[in-house]
Amino acid sequence: MKKLLAVLAASTALIGAAQAQEIKEFNIGILGGENAQDRMTSNECLRKYAEETLGVPVKLFTPADYDGVVQGLLGGSIDMAWLGASAYAKTYLTDPEAVEPVLVKANLDGSYTYHSIGFARKDSGITKLEDVKGKKFGFGDPNSTSGYLIPSVEIPEVTGASMKSGDYFGEVLFTGGHEQTIVAVANGAIDAGVTWADGQGDWEDGYNSGALRKAVDAGLVDMNDIVEIWKSKPIPEGPVVLRKALPADVKAKMTELVAGLHARDAQCAYNVAAGDTAGFVPITHDYYGSIIAVRKAQSN
Question: From which residue to which does the signal peptide run (predicted)?
């Protein structure tokens, strides 16, 4: 009898543990870069597929800045996100056990890198960084890899000066995101800025993928009206991350869904990946060691 009771108790414990592992909803965070409604529209297909896959309500969250997504992941209110490498580095440095990278966007040539692109209006006469001396220069978001971290390290190597307002550029400011930077340059509100692109394909199209491609698709900019004035070294593409605390089967299902998105629905993959892509492929934490080191050095 005692053995039977012990077995029943163990079974009850296992059932309770399994029930505790069930989720009631799933939340996907979308980094800034374009306005909230466009982010919602671009990722609605992913939301629907995730809801079908998990069998629970799935919601999209579009915080005003990158840190909103980072804090959501750290606090447990966001379960999955496609982060930039710098935002992942911040998340990891804050809590190494918060999230795990599972996938990365692959370019059409199979590479997992992209570039920070410096650009200006063609009619401004600006063709290189040196021409922006004393003028207004725009970053996107403090937690953006291409919109701040990398250019803040590499541009001073060209100018020989810091990125502080008045040191080289007349004024250095944050626009709030990639789309905002593109619009600010196109409208003449600032003289030059930086954004992201895979650097592949044609300039006239905004390259194959990235913020410029999204801006062209949205009719926000004509690439013939702007000119590239600087291009960073290759940057590790940011990871799709999942909260480590999620049940294993949920993580497996969502990883499989995103990995198979391109084959299942090419237009959805285009929308989610900000342009042409070869799909999402497996990646690990080790790929981001260099960015984590740069981010850590910048915070000291």
Answer: 1-20
